[in-house]
């Protein structure tokens, strides 16, 4: 967190290929937030990003004098700053369960996605693909229980899962098995949302074009 001057609107510095940036873009789109989205090449960050973030880290959210560097904190901040529609449950127990689920997604799925993207070839990548696919298939019954992931309403948890599922073709993972039908149905529903479609960068659109 830091202090910024000479800014009157919200700016989101985004890696157009990153699933971490994508999850925040989904929140912004679902809430209809007016924001300047600045695509940044992580290998060649702009001077503008360095002016607000000494780490040159992506994503970075700037809202007036506030700078946030961590995507999950950004999502919760946006949910509080723009409360409608709510993307976290009202009740403390349900909110805690949502946060725990995000932690599990981060540990169990995002870590494997990051491993595959960092080194797409070789035995380690193949093992990570196998583990991610098996984990998604094992979770298939959870996708079938409610309209959204373990919820009657679209939540921040869905914002974390959707970018991973959208990237499966780029990760070299296919979910064609019969047991994957609940996941496929979930993907069809999420990917059809106007907020999700609006969140896609040009690079992300190309993944499933």
Automatic annotation (TrEMBL):
Domain GST N-terminal: 8-86
Classification via Gene3D superfamilies: 1.20.1050.10, Glutaredoxin
Entry-linked CDD domains: GST_C_SspA, GST_N_SspA
InterPro entries: Glutathione-S-Trfase_C-like, Glutathione-S-Trfase_C_sf, Glutathione_S-Trfase, Glutathione_S-Trfase_N, GST_C, GST_Omega/HSP26, SspA_C, SspA_N
Domain GST C-terminal, residue spans: 91-209
SUPFAM superfamilies assigned: GST C-terminal domain-like, Thioredoxin-like
GO CC annotation: cytoplasm
Family classification: Belongs to the GST superfamily. HSP26 family.
Alphabetical list of PANTHER family matching this protein: GLUTATHIONE S-TRANSFERASE OMEGA (PTHR43968:SF6), PTHR43968
Name of the protein in question: Stringent starvation protein A
Source organism of this protein record: Marinobacter fuscus
Lineage: Bacteria, Pseudomonadati, Pseudomonadota, Gammaproteobacteria, Pseudomonadales
